[in-house]
Amino acid sequence: MAIEKSSKGARGSVQCENTSLNLLKANDFVAENIRKEMQRRNILMINITSSAGSGKTTLLQETARRISDQVKMKVLVGDLETERDAARIREAGIEAMQIVTGGICHLEAQMIWQAMDQIDLDGVELLIVENVGNLVCPASFDLGEDYRVTLMATTEGDDKPKKYPRMFLTSDLMLVSKADLLPYLPFSVDAVVKDAREVNPDIEVLQISSTNGEGIDAWCQWLLNKVKEKREEQTEEAAV
What pLDDT, on a 0 to 100 scale, did the predictor assign at position 194? Predict the structure, then answer.
């Protein structure tokens, strides 16, 4: 039997049942302004999400090593504490700024907006945001990105797309990461792809390993193609 929610509140209290909705509306307002600024500057913005430990930072290190001479790129990194991931990415030769959320389990658009004031975006063609490791909260927050990319590590199990559907529903590309470990794990690529595409029929999938290089060239080419497509779209719009 369902238990009715009490309508009684403590004296001096106010029920704020729509707080989450209002927060997301405010976030979407800022995200749209970020999107317009990225459009004005002709910057492709990618939001990379995953569970903690799925290999986002290692992937970005390898990405920087392979394409930073072909496209001007910078990275914003979100974590609850420390600047460790940004430092690792800087070691790969590109500028990276850490966004310390102070306990918040996701990045929000206003955090990106503030970071944009602190990082020089002149001439940047590709801005990658490494979100906080979490498959739940980041799914609800638009950051103004052009594309959302989610890593699905083989070490996590292949059942995650149906358990955390919103993340995969809102993603354009799923990277099955740590593919080098497939021979040692009870992980089915076919199963994870099937579940992801039942949630989101349009999601693209690449299988990668930052350790042995599998699929990294395809991932880098995907990025370069998206940068080119945005540049061409801007050129066409300017000509109209």
Answer: 98
Q: CA dihedral defined by 198, 199, 204, 207, rounded to 10 degrees? A: -80
What pLDDT sits at residue 10?
A: 39
Phi and psi at residue 47, in whole multiples of 5°? -105, 110
| Amino acid 21: pLDDT | 58
Other Cβ atoms closer than 10 A to 84: 12
**What is residue 156's DSSP assignment?**
G
Q: Which residue bears the tokens 């470990």?
A: 181
Q: Which amino acid is at 38?
A: M
Q: What is the pLDDT of residues 203-239, one digit of tens each?
A: 999 999 999 999 999 999 999 999 999 999 888 777 7
Helices (H) and strands (E) in the chain, counts: 8, 7
Give whole-number Cα distances, 223 to 46, 76, 213, in Å.
9, 16, 16
Q: Where do runs of H (alpha helix) occur along 11-170?
A: 19-41, 56-67, 84-91, 109-116, 160-163, 165-169
Report how far residue 207's alpha carbon sits from residue 92's, in angstroms, rounded to the nearest whole number. Answer: 22
CB environment 111-139: b (16+ within 10 A), e (fewer): bbbebbeeeeeeebbbbbbbbbbbbebbb
Q: Write out the H or E segment, with its range, that includes residue 152.
A: strand 147-153
Whole-model pTM: value is 0.89
What's the pLDDT tens digit per position in 13-59? 444 344 455 788 899 999 999 999 999 999 999 999 999 999 999 99
